[in-house]
Amino acid sequence: MKFDPMSAETLENPGTAYSQLRAQCPFHVYDGPDFKFAITSDYREIKEEILQDSPIWSFRFGNAAKDGISDVGFKTDPPFHMAFRAALSPGFTPKQLKKYEADIERISDELVAAMRATPGARGDFHDLFALPLPARMMCVMLGAPESDYPSYKRWADHLQEMIFHDPTPASFEPILKEIYPHFIGHLDQRRELLKQAGIDNPDVSVLGAVLPDDFMSRTLVTRVEGRPLTQEEALNVCLAFLTGGQETTTALFGNLVWRLLQTPGLWQRLRQQPDLVESAIEESLRFDPPVLAHFRTSLCPTEMHGVNLPERSKLMFSIAGANRDPSVFEAPEEFRIDRPLTEARKHLSFGAGVHFCMGAPVARLEVRTALPKLLAAFPALRLDGPSERIGSWMHWGRVKLPVAWG
Questions:
Q1: Contacts of 232 (CB under 8 A, 6+ apart)
Q2: Please, is 45 exposed, middle or buried when counting C-beta atoms within 10 Å of its C-beta (0-12, 13-18, 19+)?
Q3: Contact yes or no for 346/83 (Cβ under 8 A)
Q4: Does a structural domain hold residue 3?
Q5: What is the CATH number of the domain that holds 242?
Q6: Engineering a disulfide at 68: which of 62, 217, 235, 326 sits with its beta carbon 3.0 to 4.6 angstroms away?
Q7: Structural domain contains residue 1
Q8: Quick check: is 162 in a domain?
Q9: What residues make up the domain containing 365?
Q10: How far apart are CA 101 and CA 44, in angstroms?
Q11: pTM over 0.90
Q12: Total domains in the fold of the chain
Protein backbone atom coordinates (compact mmCIF):
# COMPACT_ATOMS: atom_id res chain seq x y z
CA MET A 1 0.00 0.00 0.00
CA LYS A 2 1.25 3.49 -0.83
CA PHE A 3 0.83 5.77 2.18
CA ASP A 4 2.26 9.21 2.82
CA PRO A 5 1.62 10.70 6.29
CA MET A 6 2.43 14.16 4.88
CA SER A 7 0.23 14.06 1.78
CA ALA A 8 -2.67 16.49 1.36
CA GLU A 9 -5.11 13.57 1.47
CA THR A 10 -3.80 12.32 4.81
CA LEU A 11 -3.65 15.81 6.30
CA GLU A 12 -7.24 16.50 5.27
CA ASN A 13 -8.68 13.53 7.17
CA PRO A 14 -5.96 11.71 9.14
CA GLY A 15 -8.39 9.65 11.22
CA THR A 16 -9.80 7.94 8.14
CA ALA A 17 -6.40 7.75 6.44
CA TYR A 18 -4.68 6.04 9.37
CA SER A 19 -7.69 3.78 9.91
CA GLN A 20 -7.45 2.61 6.30
CA LEU A 21 -3.72 2.06 6.73
CA ARG A 22 -4.35 -0.12 9.78
CA ALA A 23 -7.00 -2.15 7.94
CA GLN A 24 -4.96 -2.66 4.77
CA CYS A 25 -1.36 -2.62 6.00
CA PRO A 26 -1.02 -2.63 9.81
CA PHE A 27 2.77 -2.56 9.44
CA HIS A 28 4.12 -0.19 6.81
CA VAL A 29 7.53 1.26 5.94
CA TYR A 30 7.46 4.89 4.84
CA ASP A 31 10.48 6.11 2.87
CA GLY A 32 10.09 9.81 2.14
CA PRO A 33 12.39 12.60 0.99
CA ASP A 34 13.19 13.76 4.53
CA PHE A 35 12.33 10.87 6.85
CA LYS A 36 12.23 7.09 6.85
CA PHE A 37 10.35 5.13 9.48
CA ALA A 38 8.17 2.11 10.03
CA ILE A 39 4.52 2.56 11.06
CA THR A 40 2.55 0.17 13.23
CA SER A 41 -1.19 0.64 13.68
CA ASP A 42 -1.96 -2.50 15.66
CA TYR A 43 -3.70 -1.58 18.93
CA ARG A 44 -2.52 -4.63 20.85
CA GLU A 45 1.06 -4.34 19.62
CA ILE A 46 1.23 -0.65 20.53
CA LYS A 47 -0.34 -0.98 23.97
CA GLU A 48 1.12 -4.27 25.12
CA GLU A 49 4.58 -4.16 23.54
CA ILE A 50 5.76 -0.76 22.28
CA LEU A 51 4.43 1.28 25.20
CA GLN A 52 5.57 -1.05 27.94
CA ASP A 53 9.09 -1.26 29.34
CA SER A 54 10.45 -2.54 26.05
CA PRO A 55 14.11 -3.63 25.83
CA ILE A 56 14.01 -2.76 22.12
CA TRP A 57 12.09 0.50 21.72
CA SER A 58 13.63 3.55 23.36
CA PHE A 59 12.30 7.03 24.11
CA ARG A 60 15.63 8.67 24.76
CA PHE A 61 16.38 9.37 21.08
CA GLY A 62 13.42 11.70 20.86
CA ASN A 63 9.74 11.47 20.03
CA ALA A 64 10.18 12.53 16.42
CA ALA A 65 11.02 11.14 13.00
CA LYS A 66 14.50 12.64 13.11
CA ASP A 67 17.14 11.48 15.53
CA GLY A 68 18.17 13.45 18.57
CA ILE A 69 19.47 12.14 21.87
CA SER A 70 17.50 13.49 24.81
CA ASP A 71 18.19 11.11 27.69
CA VAL A 72 17.28 13.63 30.38
CA GLY A 73 14.26 14.02 32.65
CA PHE A 74 11.08 12.66 31.12
CA LYS A 75 12.91 11.87 27.86
CA THR A 76 14.52 8.74 29.30
CA ASP A 77 13.92 5.00 29.49
CA PRO A 78 13.17 2.91 32.57
CA PRO A 79 14.27 2.41 35.23
CA PHE A 80 15.36 6.05 35.57
CA HIS A 81 12.25 7.30 33.77
CA MET A 82 10.03 5.69 36.40
CA ALA A 83 12.11 7.21 39.20
CA PHE A 84 11.84 10.65 37.60
CA ARG A 85 8.08 10.33 37.16
CA ALA A 86 7.67 9.18 40.74
CA ALA A 87 9.66 12.17 41.96
CA LEU A 88 7.31 14.61 40.17
CA SER A 89 4.06 12.68 40.70
CA PRO A 90 3.17 14.36 44.04
CA GLY A 91 2.34 17.46 41.98
CA PHE A 92 -0.38 15.50 40.18
CA THR A 93 -2.19 13.84 43.09
CA PRO A 94 -6.00 14.28 43.30
CA LYS A 95 -5.49 16.57 46.30
CA GLN A 96 -3.07 18.73 44.35
CA LEU A 97 -5.29 18.81 41.26
CA LYS A 98 -8.19 19.90 43.44
CA LYS A 99 -6.27 23.12 44.11
CA TYR A 100 -6.34 23.96 40.40
CA GLU A 101 -10.13 23.78 40.08
CA ALA A 102 -10.58 27.34 41.35
CA ASP A 103 -8.16 28.66 38.71
CA ILE A 104 -9.88 26.69 35.95
CA GLU A 105 -13.24 28.06 37.12
CA ARG A 106 -11.90 31.61 37.30
CA ILE A 107 -10.26 31.59 33.87
CA SER A 108 -13.26 29.87 32.27
CA ASP A 109 -15.64 32.46 33.71
CA GLU A 110 -13.42 35.30 32.46
CA LEU A 111 -13.29 33.83 28.96
CA VAL A 112 -17.05 33.22 28.85
CA ALA A 113 -17.66 36.83 29.94
CA ALA A 114 -15.27 38.08 27.25
CA MET A 115 -17.08 36.01 24.61
CA ARG A 116 -20.43 37.43 25.71
CA ALA A 117 -19.01 40.94 25.37
CA THR A 118 -17.65 40.30 21.86
CA PRO A 119 -19.29 42.63 19.32
CA GLY A 120 -21.57 40.82 16.91
CA ALA A 121 -21.69 37.67 19.08
CA ARG A 122 -19.27 35.87 16.80
CA GLY A 123 -15.57 35.09 16.77
CA ASP A 124 -12.88 32.42 16.59
CA PHE A 125 -13.42 29.82 19.31
CA HIS A 126 -9.76 28.81 19.10
CA ASP A 127 -8.54 32.31 19.98
CA LEU A 128 -11.35 33.18 22.37
CA PHE A 129 -11.38 30.03 24.48
CA ALA A 130 -9.62 26.85 23.30
CA LEU A 131 -6.16 28.42 23.35
CA PRO A 132 -6.16 30.78 26.36
CA LEU A 133 -7.66 28.43 28.97
CA PRO A 134 -5.03 25.64 28.82
CA ALA A 135 -2.24 28.11 28.04
CA ARG A 136 -3.03 30.25 31.08
CA MET A 137 -3.47 27.16 33.27
CA MET A 138 -0.06 25.95 32.11
CA CYS A 139 1.39 29.23 33.38
CA VAL A 140 -0.46 28.81 36.70
CA MET A 141 0.93 25.30 37.20
CA LEU A 142 4.46 26.28 36.22
CA GLY A 143 4.42 29.44 38.31
CA ALA A 144 4.71 32.03 35.54
CA PRO A 145 2.57 35.13 35.00
CA GLU A 146 -0.58 34.25 33.05
CA SER A 147 0.13 37.20 30.78
CA ASP A 148 3.18 35.31 29.45
CA TYR A 149 1.03 32.73 27.69
CA PRO A 150 1.27 34.27 24.17
CA SER A 151 5.08 34.04 24.33
CA TYR A 152 4.87 30.48 25.66
CA LYS A 153 2.53 29.54 22.83
CA ARG A 154 4.88 31.05 20.24
CA TRP A 155 7.84 29.20 21.74
CA ALA A 156 5.96 25.90 21.84
CA ASP A 157 4.83 26.21 18.22
CA HIS A 158 8.32 27.11 17.02
CA LEU A 159 9.99 24.36 19.04
CA GLN A 160 7.61 21.66 17.81
CA GLU A 161 7.93 22.88 14.23
CA MET A 162 11.70 22.37 14.46
CA ILE A 163 11.46 19.02 16.24
CA PHE A 164 8.81 17.36 14.09
CA HIS A 165 9.08 19.00 10.68
CA ASP A 166 12.62 20.20 10.11
CA PRO A 167 14.91 17.25 9.22
CA THR A 168 18.04 19.28 9.99
CA PRO A 169 19.79 17.89 13.11
CA ALA A 170 19.54 20.14 16.17
CA SER A 171 17.40 22.70 14.28
CA PHE A 172 15.66 23.48 17.58
CA GLU A 173 18.82 24.75 19.30
CA PRO A 174 18.32 28.45 18.36
CA ILE A 175 14.83 28.64 19.91
CA LEU A 176 16.09 26.89 23.05
CA LYS A 177 18.61 29.72 23.45
CA GLU A 178 15.60 32.02 23.77
CA ILE A 179 13.53 29.74 26.00
CA TYR A 180 16.14 28.53 28.48
CA PRO A 181 17.26 31.94 29.83
CA HIS A 182 13.63 32.79 30.58
CA PHE A 183 13.13 29.71 32.75
CA ILE A 184 16.60 29.96 34.29
CA GLY A 185 15.64 33.45 35.43
CA HIS A 186 12.53 32.14 37.18
CA LEU A 187 14.52 29.31 38.79
CA ASP A 188 17.25 31.69 39.97
CA GLN A 189 14.63 33.93 41.61
CA ARG A 190 13.41 30.95 43.61
CA ARG A 191 16.96 29.97 44.53
CA GLU A 192 17.47 33.49 45.85
CA LEU A 193 14.37 33.14 48.05
CA LEU A 194 15.83 29.94 49.51
CA LYS A 195 19.17 31.65 50.06
CA GLN A 196 17.52 34.57 51.85
CA ALA A 197 15.69 32.11 54.08
CA GLY A 198 18.96 30.32 54.88
CA ILE A 199 17.76 27.02 53.41
CA ASP A 200 20.45 24.95 51.73
CA ASN A 201 18.61 21.64 51.43
CA PRO A 202 14.94 22.45 50.71
CA ASP A 203 12.14 19.91 50.73
CA VAL A 204 8.43 20.08 49.91
CA SER A 205 7.69 21.80 53.24
CA VAL A 206 8.90 25.12 51.72
CA LEU A 207 6.20 25.01 49.02
CA GLY A 208 3.54 27.59 49.74
CA ALA A 209 5.75 29.12 52.44
CA VAL A 210 9.23 30.15 51.31
CA LEU A 211 8.55 29.26 47.69
CA PRO A 212 5.32 29.46 45.68
CA ASP A 213 3.64 26.08 45.30
CA ASP A 214 4.22 25.51 41.60
CA PHE A 215 6.20 23.19 39.37
CA MET A 216 9.19 25.45 38.89
CA SER A 217 9.54 25.45 42.68
CA ARG A 218 9.05 21.68 42.74
CA THR A 219 12.07 21.20 40.50
CA LEU A 220 14.19 22.75 43.30
CA VAL A 221 12.83 20.62 46.15
CA THR A 222 12.34 17.31 44.35
CA ARG A 223 14.79 14.45 44.84
CA VAL A 224 15.37 11.73 42.28
CA GLU A 225 17.36 8.69 43.35
CA GLY A 226 18.32 10.63 46.47
CA ARG A 227 19.77 13.72 44.77
CA PRO A 228 18.41 17.11 43.67
CA LEU A 229 17.44 17.61 40.03
CA THR A 230 20.13 19.01 37.79
CA GLN A 231 19.59 22.30 35.98
CA GLU A 232 19.04 20.36 32.76
CA GLU A 233 16.39 18.18 34.41
CA ALA A 234 14.62 21.24 35.85
CA LEU A 235 14.56 22.80 32.39
CA ASN A 236 13.21 19.54 30.96
CA VAL A 237 10.24 19.81 33.32
CA CYS A 238 9.63 23.39 32.15
CA LEU A 239 9.80 22.29 28.51
CA ALA A 240 7.41 19.42 29.18
CA PHE A 241 4.83 21.93 30.42
CA LEU A 242 5.58 24.32 27.58
CA THR A 243 5.00 21.75 24.81
CA GLY A 244 2.61 19.33 26.47
CA GLY A 245 0.63 21.57 28.79
CA GLN A 246 -1.26 23.61 26.24
CA GLU A 247 -1.33 22.43 22.60
CA THR A 248 -2.95 19.04 23.18
CA THR A 249 -5.68 20.44 25.45
CA THR A 250 -6.29 23.31 23.03
CA ALA A 251 -6.74 20.74 20.26
CA LEU A 252 -9.05 18.66 22.46
CA PHE A 253 -11.25 21.70 23.13
CA GLY A 254 -11.37 22.70 19.47
CA ASN A 255 -11.93 19.20 18.11
CA LEU A 256 -14.72 18.46 20.57
CA VAL A 257 -16.64 21.70 19.95
CA TRP A 258 -16.11 21.33 16.19
CA ARG A 259 -17.60 17.82 16.16
CA LEU A 260 -20.50 18.80 18.42
CA LEU A 261 -21.42 21.69 16.15
CA GLN A 262 -20.87 19.75 12.91
CA THR A 263 -23.71 17.34 13.64
CA PRO A 264 -27.13 19.01 14.03
CA GLY A 265 -28.58 18.47 17.49
CA LEU A 266 -25.44 17.24 19.27
CA TRP A 267 -24.77 20.55 21.08
CA GLN A 268 -28.39 20.66 22.28
CA ARG A 269 -28.34 17.00 23.27
CA LEU A 270 -25.30 17.56 25.45
CA ARG A 271 -27.02 20.56 27.06
CA GLN A 272 -29.99 18.35 27.86
CA GLN A 273 -27.90 15.38 28.96
CA PRO A 274 -24.95 16.81 30.92
CA ASP A 275 -24.19 13.34 32.23
CA LEU A 276 -22.74 12.65 28.76
CA VAL A 277 -20.04 15.34 29.04
CA GLU A 278 -17.35 12.93 30.25
CA SER A 279 -18.18 10.38 27.55
CA ALA A 280 -18.10 13.12 24.91
CA ILE A 281 -14.62 14.18 26.06
CA GLU A 282 -13.26 10.63 25.90
CA GLU A 283 -14.92 10.03 22.53
CA SER A 284 -13.28 13.18 21.18
CA LEU A 285 -9.90 11.93 22.40
CA ARG A 286 -10.53 8.59 20.69
CA PHE A 287 -11.96 9.89 17.42
CA ASP A 288 -9.79 13.00 17.06
CA PRO A 289 -6.52 12.38 18.94
CA PRO A 290 -4.65 15.71 19.33
CA VAL A 291 -1.39 13.86 18.69
CA LEU A 292 -1.76 11.49 15.75
CA ALA A 293 1.31 9.37 16.46
CA HIS A 294 4.46 9.05 18.54
CA PHE A 295 7.92 7.66 17.82
CA ARG A 296 10.40 5.26 19.37
CA THR A 297 13.92 4.24 18.30
CA SER A 298 15.29 0.69 18.23
CA LEU A 299 18.25 -0.05 20.52
CA CYS A 300 19.27 -3.11 18.50
CA PRO A 301 18.48 -4.82 15.20
CA THR A 302 14.99 -6.29 15.31
CA GLU A 303 12.36 -7.89 13.11
CA MET A 304 8.73 -6.82 12.83
CA HIS A 305 6.16 -8.52 10.64
CA GLY A 306 8.85 -10.08 8.48
CA VAL A 307 10.75 -6.81 8.02
CA ASN A 308 14.32 -6.53 9.32
CA LEU A 309 14.96 -3.20 11.04
CA PRO A 310 18.53 -2.15 11.88
CA GLU A 311 19.62 -0.55 15.14
CA ARG A 312 18.45 3.07 15.51
CA SER A 313 15.43 2.51 13.26
CA LYS A 314 12.55 4.88 13.81
CA LEU A 315 9.11 3.43 14.56
CA MET A 316 5.95 5.51 14.41
CA PHE A 317 3.02 4.08 16.33
CA SER A 318 -0.25 5.38 14.96
CA ILE A 319 -2.59 6.50 17.72
CA ALA A 320 -5.19 7.58 15.15
CA GLY A 321 -5.20 4.13 13.58
CA ALA A 322 -5.20 2.20 16.85
CA ASN A 323 -8.04 4.34 18.22
CA ARG A 324 -10.29 3.06 15.42
CA ASP A 325 -9.49 -0.61 15.75
CA PRO A 326 -12.82 -2.48 15.28
CA SER A 327 -11.64 -5.29 17.56
CA VAL A 328 -11.60 -2.76 20.43
CA PHE A 329 -14.26 -0.17 19.52
CA GLU A 330 -17.75 -0.79 18.18
CA ALA A 331 -18.48 1.19 14.98
CA PRO A 332 -15.10 2.94 15.32
CA GLU A 333 -15.65 5.29 12.36
CA GLU A 334 -18.64 6.89 14.12
CA PHE A 335 -18.38 9.80 16.57
CA ARG A 336 -20.72 8.81 19.43
CA ILE A 337 -21.01 11.01 22.50
CA ASP A 338 -22.96 8.23 24.22
CA ARG A 339 -20.29 5.59 23.63
CA PRO A 340 -19.88 3.65 26.90
CA LEU A 341 -17.23 5.38 28.98
CA THR A 342 -15.38 2.14 29.68
CA GLU A 343 -15.04 1.56 25.93
CA ALA A 344 -14.18 5.13 24.93
CA ARG A 345 -11.45 5.31 27.58
CA LYS A 346 -9.56 2.47 25.93
CA HIS A 347 -8.14 5.03 23.49
CA LEU A 348 -4.38 5.53 23.40
CA SER A 349 -4.41 9.32 23.04
CA PHE A 350 -2.61 9.77 26.36
CA GLY A 351 -0.35 6.81 25.68
CA ALA A 352 -0.11 3.78 27.95
CA GLY A 353 2.35 1.98 30.14
CA VAL A 354 5.54 3.59 31.37
CA HIS A 355 5.12 6.78 29.34
CA PHE A 356 1.42 7.43 30.03
CA CYS A 357 0.90 11.19 29.98
CA MET A 358 1.18 12.62 33.51
CA GLY A 359 -0.86 15.65 32.46
CA ALA A 360 -3.88 13.61 31.35
CA PRO A 361 -5.86 14.30 34.57
CA VAL A 362 -5.25 18.04 34.12
CA ALA A 363 -6.47 18.07 30.51
CA ARG A 364 -9.57 16.11 31.47
CA LEU A 365 -10.24 18.38 34.43
CA GLU A 366 -9.98 21.54 32.34
CA VAL A 367 -12.43 20.35 29.68
CA ARG A 368 -14.78 18.70 32.18
CA THR A 369 -14.96 21.96 34.15
CA ALA A 370 -15.21 24.39 31.23
CA LEU A 371 -17.52 22.59 28.81
CA PRO A 372 -20.65 22.79 31.02
CA LYS A 373 -20.05 26.54 31.34
CA LEU A 374 -19.99 26.89 27.56
CA LEU A 375 -23.09 24.75 27.16
CA ALA A 376 -24.99 26.89 29.67
CA ALA A 377 -23.77 30.26 28.41
CA PHE A 378 -24.16 29.71 24.68
CA PRO A 379 -27.24 27.60 23.90
CA ALA A 380 -27.24 28.81 20.28
CA LEU A 381 -23.55 28.22 19.59
CA ARG A 382 -23.04 27.28 15.94
CA LEU A 383 -20.37 27.13 13.25
CA ASP A 384 -19.89 30.41 11.40
CA GLY A 385 -17.64 29.48 8.50
CA PRO A 386 -15.02 26.90 7.55
CA SER A 387 -12.52 25.80 10.15
CA GLU A 388 -8.81 25.38 9.53
CA ARG A 389 -6.67 22.53 10.79
CA ILE A 390 -3.30 22.92 12.48
CA GLY A 391 -0.50 22.63 9.95
CA SER A 392 1.48 19.85 11.62
CA TRP A 393 1.39 16.33 10.19
CA MET A 394 1.95 15.01 13.72
CA HIS A 395 -0.96 16.87 15.34
CA TRP A 396 -4.67 17.22 14.72
CA GLY A 397 -6.69 20.22 15.85
CA ARG A 398 -8.42 23.42 14.79
CA VAL A 399 -6.22 26.49 14.51
CA LYS A 400 -9.27 28.43 13.30
CA LEU A 401 -12.85 27.70 14.38
CA PRO A 402 -15.33 30.51 13.56
CA VAL A 403 -18.49 30.36 15.69
CA ALA A 404 -21.51 32.53 16.39
CA TRP A 405 -23.81 32.50 19.39
CA GLY A 406 -26.25 35.40 19.03
A1: 72, 73
A2: middle
A3: no
A4: no
A5: 1.10.630.10
A6: 62
A7: no
A8: yes
A9: 8-404
A10: 35
A11: yes
A12: 1
